[in-house]
Amino acid sequence: MNLLKFSLCITVLAVTGGRGVAQTYRNSLGLSVGTFQIRTLDQQASPLRYVGNVYPLYGFRYHHHSDRSQFNLRLSGGMGTMNPERFGTRTYSTKFGDGTPFSYQISSELYHVNVEADYLRRIGSGEPDRFNTWVGGSVNESLFYADEVANFPWVVHTATFSPVLQADYALGASHSLTLRVDMAVVGLITRAIWASFPKSTGDNNVVAYFKQGTHPATGSKLGNVNVQLGYTYRLSPRLSAGATYRARYLSYPDPRPIRALTSSLSLEGDVHF
Description:
Elements: H1 2-22, E1 27-42, E2 50-65, E3 69-84, E4 90-95, E5 101-106, E6 108-127, E7 131-149, E8 152-170, E9 175-183, E10 186-190, H2 205-213, E11 214-218, E12 223-234, E13 239-252, E14 258-272
Antiparallel strand pairs: 1-2, 1-14, 2-3, 3-6, 4-5, 6-7, 7-8, 8-9, 8-10, 9-12, 10-11, 12-13, 13-14
C-alpha cells in the first residue's frame, strides 16, 4: 500500500514537472538601454550636415504571441546633443570690460521619441522549432526636436504605416536571430514650411507649426525604410536577454530636401508570463 502511494506521488510530480517545463508563456515585458545616432542634411534648416547622439536611449516593449501570430508594442526615447558635423560643439571666449574672461558653449539639445506597434502572421509551414517567416503591418510615430539647428528650433515628425517582413532563426534551444525589414507606403510628415516660421493669428506657434507643416505622402515621395537585426538568449523559461541593432533611412523633398540616417544599438531584457 505504501509502495502504491509512493508510486502515485512520483507519477503526479513527474506530470506536474513535465507541464512546467513545457509551459509556453504568451506574453513578455521588456526594458532596454542603448545608444542612438542621427545624421541628417535638412536643407530647409541648414546647408550643413548635422550629427546627433542620444545616450542613454531607454526603451520599453510588450510582446504577445500565439502559434500563428504576434503583436508588439515598443516605446523608446532619450535626450542628447546635436551639432554640425564639420564644427561639433563650439566654444567662444571673450572678456568683460574689466578684463574678466568669459566663455560660453553652443551645443543644441536633442530630444527623440519613437512609438511603434505591429501585428504579424506566420506564413508557410517552415520549421517551427528552427525557422519562421512573418508578414504583417506596422504603425510608427517618430519625433525629433533640437533647440538650435542653425540657431533656430528644428522639429521633424513622422507617422507612417508599413508592410513588414520578418524572419526568425533558432540557432539552438536558447539562441535565436531575428531579421526584420519594413518600408512605409503611406504616412504624414511634419517639417518647417518655406518661410521656416508659421504665421497665424488664431493659433499659437506649436499648433500653427503642425497645422501648416504637416502633409500626407505615399511611399513614392516619403522615403522611410527600417532594418532591424536582433539576437536573443533564453536564460530561463521566464527570462531572456539580447541585443538589437536598428537602422532607418528617411527622405522627403519639400519644401527643401531632407535626408536622414538613424541607427541605434540596444541591450534588452524580457520577463515572460
